[in-house]
Design brief:
Helix content is 35%, strand content 25%. By secondary structure, the protein is of the alpha/beta class. An 8-stranded mixed sheet has the order 1-2-3-4-6-5-7-8, with helices on both faces. Strand 2 and strand 3 form a beta hairpin. It starts with a helix and ends in a 12-residue tail after the last helix.
Length: 246
């Protein structure tokens, strides 16, 4: 293929969100067949990347310097879209924070891996929805290396909140603004959100999103994550079971 042909293909798959002091480039949709418990389900996959001080950057400039910037050293977020997410009357979303240990290794110290797969199943059963996979949210926004140190403190008796605070971080440093910008690009109509976390609901509402309902999702409890799950409710204010959104 000629360079011009490559550019023409990619330009049609890249949209740019201008957020004032930064731009968010969204690439997709890309057909992504996913194996869920032995069944192949096709999602439409998008990935996005934030570029500070590059609001006037053209798609051609972005593509041309791909191999000059070491993007593999940085994390990029993405979203799996199922069904007619843009137009379907009822759509489910999940804002899922990356969890290297839970999502990839299947760690039972948390319920993240279970929630990831279960929310995908819930979106499929609903007929339309989107799972946002937020790459800069590891350890509630402190990063994988810092999360490893927090785990060491938890092994000495601290809960997840105090471990983060003792390392000098906020209790929860996650920011949902980029994901909400991408959500608004993909859908204008109201959504329902899969979460037990009131902060996610508040972030969406504060950004002007119309939230129809909150759909709870509790993970598998075990002796390995019992303290983690109770800390979410007692220290972080997560909704308890059967508590309706007000």
């Amino acid at each position: 293929m000629t360079k011009q042909h490559i550019l023409s293909i990619l330009k049609n798959k890249i949209k740019t969100i201008d957020n004032g002091d930064h731009a968010i480039h969204v690439v997709g949709p890309i057909k992504l067949p996913v194996d869920l418990d032995g069944e192949t389900v096709t999602f439409q996959w998008y990935s996005w990347m934030r570029r500070d001080n590059h609001t006037n950057e053209s798609v051609e400039e972005l593509i041309t310097e791909l191999n000059a910037v070491h993007y593999a050293e940085f994390q990029q977020s993405s979203v799996l879209v199922y069904g007619d997410f843009e137009h379907e009357e009822e759509a489910l979303i999940r804002m899922h924070s990356i969890c290297h240990t839970g999502d990839i290794f299947g760690s039972q110290r948390c319920d993240c891996g279970f929630q990831l797969k279960q929310s995908m199943k819930m979106i499929i059963a609903n007929g339309a929805g989107a799972l946002f996979y937020l790459a800069n949210h590891e350890g509630r926004g402190i990063g994988l290396f810092s999360k490893a140190m927090a785990y060491l403190l938890q092994e000495e008796g601290l809960d997840t909140v105090d471990a983060n605070l003792e390392l000098g971080f906020a209790e929860d440093a996650r920011d949902y603004s980029e994901a909400i910008s991408v959500l608004k690009l993909l859908r204008k109509a109201p959504v329902s959100i899969i979460t037990n976390n009131p902060r996610k609901v508040e972030a969406l509402r504060d950004a002007g999103m119309n939230i129809l309902s909150r759909v709870p999702l509790w993970g598998e409890a075990s002796v390995h994550n019992e303290k983690y799950l109770s800390t979410k409710v007692v220290r972080s204010g997560h909704f308890e079971r059967k508590l309706a959104l007000k």
